[in-house]
Amino acid sequence: MESFSNLPDTDLLFAIDNFFSGAYLDQSMPIREPKRKAYDPDSFINLGPSSTQQSLNPTKNLTGFEHYLEMRRNTAEWMLKVCQYVIQDLDRFGICVIDNFLGKDYADAILATTEDLYDSGVFREGEVVSNRWRQSTRTIRGDQITWVEGSERGAEAIGYLMAMVDSVIMHAKRIKNNGSLGNHIIQGRTKAMVACYPGSGSHYVKHIDNPNKDGRCITSIYYLNKNWDSKEDGGLLRIFPNGWANQVADIEPIFDRMLFFWSDRRNPHEVQPAHRTRYAITLWYFDAKEREEARLRYQRENSGKPALGSQQPINLG
Q: Which of 32, 107, 240, 245 has the CB geometry, 3.0–4.6 Å to 256, for a possible disulfide?
């Protein structure tokens, strides 16, 4: 069922350089201000500041190289801010939500790629890790999915998203005093699971991404749904944080929203029925120690058959 990929030691700026072949070097580069969503453990009300959009001055007074350096500087500042949000909110809430993650231009390109993939017919019904009651898969989850490496022709925009999320995780784990994140050795991740809930009440029942210590420690989800109104459209991601009795976090799957949360039993969650097409892209990041233990456990229980991905994780330093 699972698709795995080594986590490349991709430099953040290299990822930027390779997307759109430097298309922004000759025009105004939009600077996104990440909008943090924090959740009060007493009421889960939104504590985040309002979002702002800024842009560079027109590049007519800058050479292409000067504009390029300005783009890199602003991206480094953005990266530090996002990493701080991720570290702090995972520690305090187990959940981190960041709006305006990539900005409209990049998000539009990722949405267009996702829609093209869906129209091409490569999506298949999602599978389940465990189905002890032998229920129909469709009653458990109603999404359709495909796996993307990010290097495929035509999938460059999704590859850019993957590189940016990789960079957030890699930079955050290298920051001193990085909280609970520092307890994990993250050396790999899955491919991107691109999912479509095709409306008509499609949903995913309450579940845990990693109930059996398979190595996944962080779930990251990027949403692509414009003008989403959960009162009309449904499709909320409802998280039930462990230890917070009678409290939930309702996450709307709105356009250009990025979500991080712990993958284990701390965060049971469900996708409530969606009444129009709902797109999301998910990456799971592995704890190397737990992943290796899971691999060895599987081999012992299955006569030494290789599983859980054959790639050797890259040392990220």
A: 107
Number of neighbouring beta carbons within 10 Å of residue 226: 13
Q: ∠ at Cα 187 (186, 188), nearest 5°?
A: 105
Torsion, Cα of 185, 290, 180, 103 (10° steps): 70
Contact predicate 249/44, CB 8 Å:
yes
CA angle 46, 193, 126 (to 5 degrees): 100
Side-chain-facing half-sphere of 97: CA atoms under 13 Å: 24
Kindly write down the DSSP assignment for every residue of the chain, as one continuous string: ---EEE-----HHHHHHHGGGGGGGGS--EEE--EEE-B-TTT--B-PPPP-EEEPPPGGGS-HHHHHHHHHHHHHHHHHHHHHHHHHHHHHTSEEEEESSS-HHHHHHHHHHHHHHHHTT--EE---S--TT---HHHHB--EEEEE-S-STT-HHHHHHHHHHHHHHHHHHHSSS-GGGGG--EEEEEPEEEEEEESTTEEEEEE-S-SS--SEEEEEEEE-BTT--HHHHB--EEE--TT-TT--EEE--BTTEEEEEE-STT--EEEEEESSEEEEEEEEEEEHHHHHHHHHHHHHHTTT---S-SPPPPP--
- Rounded to two decimals, the pTM is 0.80
Task: From 253, 239, 246, select the one nearest 195 (Cα to Cα).
Answer: 253
